[in-house]
Amino acid sequence: VSGAAQAQTERRYQVNSVAVKAGLFMPSGKEARNAGGRHIFALEADYVAQYLPDRNQTNVVSIGYIEKGDLRLIPMTLNQLFHDNKGKTRYDIYYGYGIGVYSARLSNLENSNGSKLLLGGALTAGWNINEKSFIETKYHAIFNYNKRDVGGLNIMYGYRF
Questions:
Q1: Which of 20, 51, 90, 102 is most solvent-facing, going by the fewest CB within 10 Å?
Q2: Distance of alpha carbon 65 from its chain centroid, rounded?
Q3: Quick one: what percent of the chain has pLDDT higher than 70?
Q4: Could you write out the DSSP letters of every residue in 53-120?
Q5: What is the arithmetic mean of pLDDT over 10-33?
Q6: What is the overall mean pLDDT for the chain?
Q7: Exposed (0-12), middle (13-18) or buried (19+): which is 7, by Cβ within 10 Å?
């Protein structure tokens, strides 16, 4: 059984493979919610840069697009994901963290000054439904847009190519 799980995971996380995701972004900061709402449509694409099967790790580059009203975010992150490719649980789950640069605009503030590049990080947890499709949550912690929180939670459905 573990050999079959290993082979399936290796196909799923092949280097140079791509995934697209769509879902909702829920801002955690009051000003961001006022600018864009509580639930904002979000898109994201992943590119597998490295797969290390002996360490159960995948390094993924992600870029997203989130915009509604006066809020726009473009997250660009490098993520390290850990997955269960040995069948230790009955669920095919993964989790990880990332760092990145976020292009952020919060236009509803008096001192907005347009788009800014901000440093941030992400925490990720996901469940592989099958070899191609998955559900993922990702929390973006974005450091300080004029002392305001523009981070939040993504809940997305994804498909691998």
A1: 90
A2: 11
A3: 85
A4: GGGTEEEEEEEEEEEETTEEEEEEEEEEEEE--S--SSS-EEEEEEEEEEEEEETTSTT--S-EEEEE
A5: 88
A6: 87
A7: exposed
Report the 10 Å Cβ neighbour count for 126. 20
| Rounded-to-integer distance, Cα 76 and Cα 112, Å | 21
* pLDDT for the residue numbered 106: 86
pLDDT in tens, 75-128: 999 999 998 765 556 678 999 999 999 999 988 666 556 788 999 999 999 999
Q: Are strands 57-68 and 152-160 parallel, antiparallel or unpaired?
A: unpaired
* Residue positions counted in the chain: 161
Mean pLDDT to the nearest integer, 136-142: 96
Smallest CA-to-CA distance from 139 within 35, 59, 42, 9 is with 42
Split at pLDDT 50, 70, 90, the class of 11 is low
Q: Is 93 exposed, middle or buried (0-12, 13-18, 19+ CB in 10 A)?
A: middle
Distance of alpha carbon 34 from alpha carbon 17, whole angstroms: 37
**Cα gap 146→109, rounded to integer Å:** 9
In the DSSP assignment, the letter for residue 15 is T
Q: Look at the block and give the residue holding tokens 């523009």.
A: 150
